[in-house]
Amino acid sequence: MAKTRQQKEQELTVLSEKLDRSKGVVFARYMGLSVNEVQELRRELRKEENEMVVAKKSLVGLMLEKAGQSKDQTAHMDGAVAVVFGYKDEVSPAKVLATFAKKHELVGFHGGLLEGNYISIEQVTALAKLPSRQELLAKMVGSMKAPISGFANVLGGNLRGLVQVLNQISEKKAA
């Protein structure tokens, strides 16, 4: 049964609200997956505070237009589109979809939105390869800690050397 204009407008409003709340959005191809596989994908996305909504490409075009983008970005999309909203960070929707796509060939990217700008399939793929925010923070902390640890080891080395010299002197006097 076809949706009424009011239902479509309501769905567009919901999509636009989700877009406003999200930090990153990925448009994906999902057609051909079984219901269980789609549910598995939704669970994986929820773990990372992402949400997947399936919408017609015409509604996605209207959502993009409402967000200040060109409606023509949807021209290469086919059928219904999985719109994945990332609420926690910009990278996680692309990462989760890329990981899921390794096991399921039917899943692929159509593009995305990052900081209010439309990004291509290649850019979404590159985004999926980036380390997560947690990984980047861990690397930064490790980089900040390394010089301090090295300095502490150098100072500790001088103290160890002094202790060894004093031990040898005390052993010579005892002998």
Overview of the molecule:
The protein is of the alpha+beta class and 175 residues long. It has two domains: 5-130, Ribosomal protein L10, N-terminal RNA-binding domain (Alpha-Beta Plaits, 2-Layer Sandwich); 132-175. It is built from six helices and five strands. It has helices spanning 5-21, 35-47, 57-66, 92-103, 121-129, 133-174; strands at residues 24-29, 50-56, 80-86, 108-114, 117-119. The chain has a five-stranded antiparallel sheet with strand order 2-3-1-4-5, sandwiched between helices. The protein is elongated and about 100 Å long. The relative contact order is 0.14. The mean pLDDT is 85.
Mean pLDDT: 85
Which fold name corresponds to the CATH topology of the largest domain?
A: Alpha-Beta Plaits
- Compute the CA-based radius of gyration: 27 Å
Which series of helices and strands comes N to C? HEHEHEHEEHH
Report the strand count: 5
Please give the alpha-carbon distance between the first and last residues: 101 Å
Query: How is the main sheet built?
Result: 5 strands, antiparallel
Task: Supply the CATH class of the largest domain.
Answer: Alpha Beta
CATH superfamily of the largest domain: Ribosomal protein L10, N-terminal RNA-binding domain
Shape assignment? elongated
Tally the structural domains: 2
Strand content: 15-25%
Helical element count? 6
Based on the coordinates given, report the CATH architecture of the largest domain.
2-Layer Sandwich
Low-confidence stretches: none
Spatial sequence of strands, sheet with the most strands: 2-3-1-4-5
What share of residues is helical? Answer: 55-70%
Specify the structural class: alpha+beta
